[in-house]
Every structure is written in C-alpha cells, then in structure tokens.
Amino acid sequence: MTTTTLAVLVPLLPFLGAAAGLFLGRKAPGFVRPLAILPTLAAAVLAVVVAVRQGGGETIDAATRFTPTGSVPIDLALHLDGFAVLVAALVGVVASCVQIYSTAYLRDDPRYPSYAALVSLFTAAMLLVVYSGDLMVLLVGWEIMGICSYFLVGHYWETPEARAASLKAFLVTKLGDVPFLIGLFALATDAGTFRITGILDAVEKGGIDHPTLIALLLLAGVAGKSAQFPLHTWLPDAMAGPTPVSALIHAATMVAAGIYFVARLLPLFASSDAALIVLAVMAAVTMVGSGLAALAQDDIKRVLAYSTIGQLGYMAGALAVADRGAAVFHLISHGAFKALLFLAAGVVIHAAGTNSLAAMSRMSGLPKRIPDAYWTMTVALLALVAIPPFAGFFSKEAVLVAAEHSALGGLTAPAAAGWTVLVAGLLAALLTAAYATRLWLLAFRGRGADAPDHGREPRAMTSVLWLLAVPSLGLGAAFGYFDEWFDGRGLAPTLLTAVLGTGVALIGALLTYGAWRTLRHRDGLAVPMPEAAVVAHPDAGPSAVEAEAVATHEAAYGSVAGAPDPADPGRLLLGPLHRHAVTGFHLDAVYHLLFVRPVQAGAELVRFLDREVVDTYVRGSGTGANWLGVLVRRAQTGNVQTYLSALLAGTVVLAIAAVVLSNVNAGS
C-alpha cells in the first residue's frame, strides 16, 4: 500500500468510526467503545507508519480535482512534509490516549456514545487540517473542529457554566474566522490557487500583491483558534467541559491548528516585516499575561488552560522570528506533556472531589491516594517548567535560541521581533515556573483532613498517564534527530539561553516555594474550607464528580476562577495585581463594554422599531380595513328599495356632473 493511500486512511478511519458510533450508539451500545478506540488507534498507527516512510525527506504531494469553480479550482490534495507527518502522529497518539482514558472517565455517562463519536470526528478534522494540501479542504477541517468543540465543551449542558463556555468558545473563534476567510479568498485571488504548493511558489516569485493585509487577516483567525491575545478568553472558560476534552483541545487539535497553519504558510508571513512584528507583540503579550493570570487561578484546570495559552505564545514567538522548526518542535513536545497534565488533573479532581487548589491545600494524603497521577504529573510539570533533561527544556530552548539569533540579526525576521520574543520568553519562563510550583505545592503538599477515598483509579486512566510520561521525559533528547524533519535547521540549545532560561525558572520556583513556606507558618490554613468546595462521592464516576465540582466552585467561593485563600502564594507574589489577574485582567468586561452592550443596545433599538413603528403600520392597515368593512357592512342593508334609491341618486349625481363639466368646457 502506497504512502499516499495510507495518508488518506489516517483521517478517514476516525471519521468512519464517528459515523458508525453515532448510528449504533443507541441500537448496539456494546460497539460504542470499540468504535471509539479502534479506528483512532489504527489511525495513530498508520500516521506513525506514514511518518517513518516520509522520514523527513522529500515532500510527498498528491492531488485530484474536486470540482471546477469557474475561477480558482478546489483540489483534494495531500501535502506530506516532515512537519505534517510528525504532527499527525502526535494527533493520533494523543487522541487514542484520550479515547482510552474516556472509557473509564465517562463510564457512567449516558451521553458517552455521542461524546466518543464527536471526539473521533474532532480527531478526523484535525488530521484533515494537518495533511491537507488545499486551503479550502483545510478550511473544512478547521470549521468542523469549531463545531465539535461547541458540543464537547458543552457536554455537561445541565450546568450554566458549560452552556456559557461552549457558546463563548464558538462565538469568539467565529469572530476570528470571518477575517480569516476573507484572507483565504484574497490569498487565493492573488496566487490563483488554493494549493499550498502553488501559494508558496507565488510568494517566492513575488506574486502576492497584498502580503501584509492578507497576513494580518489570517492572523485574526489564528488568534481565535490558537487562543492568542486578544481572542484567548474562550479557552479558560472551556474548562467547564470534561477533562479528556480539555486534553484533546489543548494538546493536539484545535489550539494547535492555528500555529500549524502559520508554520505551513510561514514564507507568506515572513514576506511582511509588519506581520512578523504584530505576531511577535501578540505572542509576547500572550506569554506574559497568561503567566500572570495562571498564578492567580484557583481551578486547577484553569491554571493549565492559561499555561496552554502561554506555551502557544512561545510557538507563535518562534514563528514571529521565522523559525517554524522551533515552533513545531515545541508544539509536539508541549502536546505530550500538556495531554499528560490534563489527564492527570482529571484523576486529581476525582480523588480530591474538587477542582479547587484552595480546597486541595487543606487535604492531606492525596499523593498516597493517587501515586500514578502524582508522579506523572510531577514529570509533566518539570517538562512544562523546562528543567533539563525533560522534553520542555529542549523545545523551549529552541524557541529562545531562535529569538536570540533573530535579535542579533542572524535570521530573516526583524531584530525587533527577536528582542520582543526573547525578553518576553524569559519573563514567561519565570512565571511558568512560579505557577507550576504553586500548583504542585497546593495540590500535593496540603495539610488537613484526609483526602476522600475513591478507591484505586481505573487502569484505563492510569496506564495512559505512564504512556504519555515517556515522551514528556525523553522526547527532547531526540532534538538532533529532528533536524532533517524541520528544514534542516539545528534545534540544539546554546549555553547562554540554557543558563538564562533555566536560571529564571529556578528563581520563579524558589520564590514561589519561599512564599508558600512563609504563608504555611501563618494562620492561613486555619481558614475553614467551605462545605460546598468538596464533592465527596466515593462511588461516583470521575465525570460526575467533575461536573458537580465545576458547578459548585462559584457557589463556594463566589468566583468561577479564584478563591479568597490567604495561604495562596500566588496572592503574596502578585500583590495588588492579584485581583486583576484572577479575572484575566478584565478583558471579558472590556469586551462586554465594547461589543456585547452595543449589540444589546442595537437589538433593543431594533425591537423598539419593530414593535412601535413597523407594528404600528401593520396594525393601522388592519384597523383601516376593519373600519372600511364596517362602513361597507352598513351599506349592505338587504332592502331592494334602498339599493334602487342609491342607484338613482348616483345616476342623478353623475348626470349633473356631466352637464356641469360640459358647460365649463364650452365656456372655456
């Protein structure tokens, strides 16, 4: 079987599994779990085979005409280079882990069949984006992911948090998709094709007439899909969905799609210095802002959500300095350890009966209850902080090295972009270490009553954690092997950036530990924990515990994000900035003021005009018809003599009028 045929099967198998799962979900529930796992697992195996066959060598292109359009044709095209095959392997592996994990996590959920089918469809859509060689086909997968995220984030639709989060995710990403679509059509008009190879040829020959405008329009869609400032606000709220969905969205599908898209078309963006500087500023603000916000969150999943936003900022920063090898290397590395972090967080939430770090800090014995999650989450947090030799160290150093080279004039990107990314990246490394250390200390070093005993976690959940711990620990060591897959550009760290990056990370960790120790010896932990903060149901499934924990967090603490915890080291480190950081620096309030309120005011105006103006005319016409009917009805007496008298009177009036008019005409 040819490599092209295998590549076609990779997105096709999860799609067929999704269709079969939806069709058989009610009729044959025994087939739901096999249909969820086997097609996705087979797609992962085939994706690995395609990656091995491609081997980082010559790009494989194949296409067939889908339909003539009369202008720019649309092709069913494959474009398999080193970036595509490695990202597809990541998507397949993470999606398989999520499907296996979900069989236990949602074992008692009545909506599991539709959930599993949507996860398979989500996976197929991302694989379509990764392998597609035509932007219109890529757009199909891009939009399918948006629809799937709406349903999956809103899986716990009984809770108002999930309903609001799913709608927000859909609307914010669509806000970016509008200019994105305009940019795609403008790009195809200039290049004369939707094929990626044709567009890159046009860029190389200078055939794109408006590169800056097109690049900025496309960046709007990328900001929405990959949760970059200012369209990142949907991602923390999306934590109201099931934890396996969070792992899939954050690690390997939706948020990675925007970064991957820019990497695919990087020569287009690199042809405009203005676009690269805008991307660099966007990445810098995202990295630093998300780090500050993560340090103030109480929900363990919201901490990880802001962490994802920051790590995506690193990837965007690498693209801003025109190094897509470093960006995709960090995308793959981050996909492994972030999937592990979220899936381990699901185990922690189930064991603790809460998603609140403040509540966990008032429990003891949690590491003993869940040793698998404790050790694997520790590995993933070390990778996130970029401590050598964990995977995150090598991939994050690749980004910092690229920024350093750009700042010193070694790359084609503007030096201003390089300095912006380098400084923001080092500051973000300090913040990353701070919030990761805070999460670990509050979750696993608490004091107080024993954590609820839910028994041993299912093997389907714990085995996946250890599987993902392997690349989280060892993937970075393969950086030398990946050079040929990533344009042949070296990914090795330099001494300067390694010392700076690791040094600031250690400073951030030590500052957080010192603040935690200081507060621990005060009376902060003496503050009682709200009764509603912990949902202790030893017999309940993980998804049921999580749904109730999400629903009760705001009731317990008065906020969906924070908690009034005097023993929180983040509160001490941030000082007066804490109250702003916990709300994401009030961006939602700003958007409500700038967009929501004007739209609501416009809707009220339209309602007023509809009811008081349009309806007035409609009611007036009806009233006039009624009055006319009354008059006509009074004339219809049924008396023949009356009708003859009226006819005679009318004839006399007409005769008199005729005589008068004739005399007038004769006189004139």
TrEMBL record:
Lipid bilayer topology: Multi-pass membrane protein
Domain NADH:quinone oxidoreductase/Mrp antiporter transmembrane: 132-403
Transmembrane segments: 6-24, 36-56, 76-100, 112-131, 137-157, 208-224, 245-263, 275-296, 303-322, 328-352, 373-395, 415-443, 464-482, 494-516, 643-664
InterPro entries: NADHpl_OxRdtase_5_subgr (IPR018393), ND/Mrp_TM (IPR001750), NU5C-like (IPR003945), Proton_antipo_N (IPR001516)
Name of this protein: NADH-quinone oxidoreductase subunit L
Localization annotation: Endomembrane system; Membrane
UniProt keyword list: Membrane, Transmembrane, Transmembrane helix
Annotated Gene3D superfamilies: 1.20.5.2700
Residue ranges occupied by any NADH-Ubiquinone oxidoreductase (complex I) chain 5 N-terminal domain in the UniProt entry: 68-115
